[in-house]
Amino acid sequence: MAAPTIVILTGAGISRESGLHTFRDPDGIWARHRIEDVATPEAFARDPALVQGFYNARRAALRDPAIRPNAAHEALAELDWRWPGDLLLVTQNVDDLHDRAGSRRLVHMHGELAKARCLRCGAVGPWEGDLSPETPCPACGAAGGMRPHVVWFGELPLEMERIEAALDDCGLFVSIGTSGAVYPAAGFVREVRHRAETLELNLEPSEGSHLFGEARHGPATVLVPAFVREVLARWG
Ligand code: APR
């Protein structure tokens, strides 16, 4: 049988063992910050310095040398290099750990912390340091319009056409380290479950766990390398 198209959805849980916080766990980001204060277009319009400070801290945390891709990111990169069929890794994560591990067929549907966007000219580019309301745009020179290139609540996720095309074609759908609380990502399993194998790999059952054909529960650094070995032995 030909190797099926694989679509893999990842969330904050895959980066937890690299030292980054998830959102909805008891020690998660949304236990310490209110979404409506830091992660909506209205919050940015009201208090851009506060919103930028929140993302500046998260961007700075990514540059900590202790924060590195873990065995789960590395296993998915190996699957990307070795998989003979189509594959798309769709991450909700704004960190760059999949990129650093070497995944190439990758979509950051919620944007990237390591990029900034200018609301004046639309330019998107790499961004390593802090942003402030005074930061000028490197492309057009205007100040006052630079924002993190992340998708806030109430905004449309990125590259949805490419994601939907992969889901249409998908024979195996795997969801890793995501609580299934945020749409549209949480709805992908419903789109594919009647024609594709579906597998959840998560520390605990997610909100949509019952929608998957199979669910395995445990840490991503254990479950993901085992899954990759298995799928490569089956079709690779
Ligand atoms: N291995 C596997 N799964 C884990 C691990 C781990 N080591 N640690 C935690 N998890 C699981 C948790 O049990 C939880 O189900 O990861 C999931 C993380 O869920 P959330 O914190 O809700 O993160 P995520 O699903 O990525 O959130 C989706 O919400 O606010 C946002 O935009 C943000 O992209 C994010 C979106």
CATH topology label of the largest domain? Rossmann fold
Order of helices and strands: EHHHHHHEHEEEEHEHEEH
Helix content: 25-40%
Choose one word for the global shape.
Answer: globular
Instruction: Round the mean pLDDT to the nearest integer and report it.
Output: 97
Compute the number of strand runs.
9
Structural classification: alpha/beta
Query: Can you identify the CATH superfamily of the largest domain?
Result: TPP-binding domain
The small molecules bound here are:
adenosine-5-diphosphoribose
Q: Give the strand content.
A: 15-25%
Helix tally?
10
Order of neighbouring strands in the sheet with most strands: 3-2-1-7-8-9
CATH class of the largest domain: Alpha Beta
Give the low-pLDDT segments.
none
Radius of gyration, whole Å? 18 Å
Tell me the domain tally.
2
Largest sheet: 6 strands, parallel
CATH architecture of the largest domain: 3-Layer(aba) Sandwich
